[in-house]
Design goal:
Blueprint (H helix, E strand, L loop, with lengths): L11 H4 L11 E2 L6 H4 L5 E10 L2 E10 L5 E10 L5 H4 L3 H7 L3 H5 L3 E5 L8 E6 L1 E2 L9 H5 L1 E11 L5 E7 L4 E4 L4 E2 L8 H4 L8 E7 L4 E6 L3 H13 L4 E6 L2 E5 L5 E7 L4 E6 L1
Antiparallel strand pairs: 1-11, 2-3, 3-6, 4-5, 4-8, 5-7, 8-9, 9-10, 12-13, 13-17, 14-15, 15-16, 16-17
Length: 277
């Protein structure tokens, strides 16, 4: 599967640290709640399998949430096993040729398995592609994964009082740590003029990315295809009826004052992005 090598969009674990937006409560440290005591690695029943997504073969990162908390994002980094031989690294020969990578670059390859679909306790989420070096270059076959071993994992979840927490686990040292900022607000919004033109989206997590007088943007997680369609219709009902572009997962429209809104939806991550300016 051919994909452009670009950085992955911000994950929920990274967005937890973004604060300072109008109407955003930011992070709240609560010494009575410990993320590293709430979820253990054994609670994440994960596996990597071959799968098919939209007619293409992928190597998929899947897991079942056996914890008592809703999980928003799991990202697991896999590193090459010790003493890998040149023959074993030949599984990357095709990629090496396409990217014109050196032997040193091939020796540094890692795999990121991530699944940003929200998982309630007991729920299984699947069909999220593993990628090379945290980019949009997908792992081509299971043989590339089989020379890897788990290195680090980050888990974003809804903890005490509905706050968002991030937990880290190091497979080498078998130790846990948690994000230093404590719990973060999962339902950010703004009271600026542009934001008031939009319907507020109800979702498991909403993060404000930019909040300026002339530009506002947010991302929402745990959004279904039906949720996206309903939100797009709600935006139109708010007066954005001059449609310049519309597809099943994208909308670009302006209102009578020439203010433009753009909405897009990623079904793999169950993520909705919206910008208005």
């Amino acid at each position: 599967m051919k994909k452009t090598v670009t950085a992955l969009c911000l994950s929920i674990t990274m967005l937890f640290g973004l604060t300072g937006c109008s109407g955003n409560e930011g992070s709240v440290f609560d010494s009575t709640f410990s993320a590293k005591d709430a979820i253990k690695i054994e609670d994440i029943d994960w596996n990597v399998t071959e799968s098919i997504l939209d007619g293409d073969r992928i190597v998929s990162f899947n897991y079942t949430n056996n914890s008592k908390y809703t999980i928003l994002d799991v990202e697991m980094k896999f590193r090459q096993k010790a003493d890998i031989t040149p023959e074993q690294l030949s599984v990357f020969d095709e990629l090496k040729e396409k990217r014109d990578w050196t032997d040193e670059e091939i020796a540094d390859i890692y795999i990121l398995g991530y699944n940003r679909k929200c998982a309630d306790p007991g729920e299984t989420v699947s069909d999220s592609p593993c990628c090379i070096n945290g980019t949009y270059t997908y792992v081509e076959n299971i043989a590339q994964y089989e020379i890897m071993e788990p290195d680090m994992v980050s888990i974003a979840f809804v903890g005490k009082n509905g706050k968002g927490y991030t937990l880290y686990y190091d497979f080498s040292s078998q130790t846990y740590s948690e994000a230093s900022q404590g719990g973060s607000d999962l339902h950010q919004w703004s009271d600026n003029e542009l934001c008031r033109l939009l319907p507020k989206l109800e979702a498991p997590a909403v993060t404000v990315r930019s909040d300026r007088e002339d530009y506002f943007s947010f991302s929402a997680y745990g959004v279904s295809n039906e949720d996206y369609a309903a939100y797009a219709e709600a935006v139109k009902e708010k007066g954005f009826t001059d449609i310049s572009f519309e597809r099943s997962t994208q909308l670009r429209a302006t209102n009578a004052d020439g203010i433009e809104v753009r909405i897009s939806y990623n079904s793999i991550d169950e993520q909705l992005n919206c910008q208005i300016e």
